[in-house]
Amino acid sequence: MFEDELDEFTRKHLRRQLKTVNSATAPTITIDGKPVIQLASNNYLGLANHPEVKEAAIQTIQHYGVGSGASRLISGTQTPHHGLETALAHFKATEAALTFGTGYSANTGIIPTLVGSQDLILADRLCHASLIDGCRISQATLRVFHHNDTTHLKQLLEKRSGAQKTLIITEGVFSMDGDIPPLPEIVNLASDFQATLLVDDAHGTGIMGKHGRGIVEHFEIDPNVLIQMGTLSKALGTIGGYVVGSRSLIDYLINTSRSFIYTTAPPSSMAAAAQAAINIIQSDPDRRTRLWQNRDQLYQGLKAMGFQLTNTQSPILPIILSDPQLAVSMSTRLLEHGIYIPAIRPPTVPKGTSRLRLTVTSEHTSAQIETALTALDLIRKELGVKG
Ligand SMILES: *Cc1c(COP(=O)(O)O)cnc(C)c1O
Ligand 1 in contact with 342 (CB < 6 A)? Predict the structure, then answer.
């Protein structure tokens, strides 16, 4: 039944398989009982295994149990959910916040409340699948602008018919390329053309900006001129999605967002853990300093080897290899050397841009990064990767 399709994936070197890890996430993990250096986790600040974050979850389970019992509007809203939403709004300098079960469900739940079948969405070509799925659910007309290209975006805005309601979507840090958008220019275009702007700051939250508040802080943009969403699952080390904005936006979402209304409330232990993570981000800026130091060490090392990199501005450091088979071979050889770096292939990235996607955290040691670089250099030469 499904074998033909699976064989086709295998033939094209696009078949994916799950790898089981018998340990916590980065900086090191255990695969098949063997410890390896992991450069693949979005746990940028090591908060997924921070003692205070774990303790917040444990204490909350002791008090509230494990499951929340119902959806947020029925009876599932527990004190930790409120605590987290207040902390998020404060952290992001907005009036209010709302959390969802995941970032994926936040995107599929937010976009259809903002636009409908008569409306227009202009989204960056490299937007995350969850944003695209949210666009599809909304039934609005979806047009894609060239990656980070405000000239193209402006052309599309000028071409739209009449007073069509318009939503512009971009990301704070692009998840597969690690680069950032020209956000101030996009904010201006949104204002000039009376469009709503939604920024997915999944990878910017916790690491970008002076205080780790994300891409909006990085560019010193007024948080009131756009809608921000993000996840609690990356730098914040837990699970869940969020949106921050005006009180009326949040009340509107509580009343209309299907992926908020028709799903069980996330465990309050995860809300408490995420709140603890936000506290640490604010009280322990050294983690961010270490993250950017590690990022620079890795970036400089990769650059010196002549790899084809993206215009990355973040701890996401992709090596573009184009050929999916080469990406998989390198990933496999690296694992034999005790380094875990995944091959990312279409449809996650556009055809012809298969890559190794490296992510580094504040918790990697300089020696671990050096070990990874040495292995990469060896395997690069062995497999004849030009650079
Ligand atoms: C990871 C990610 C999401 C989804 O968030 P989850 O909490 O993992 O569901 C959404 N948007 C972007 C840009 C992401 O990188």
Answer: no
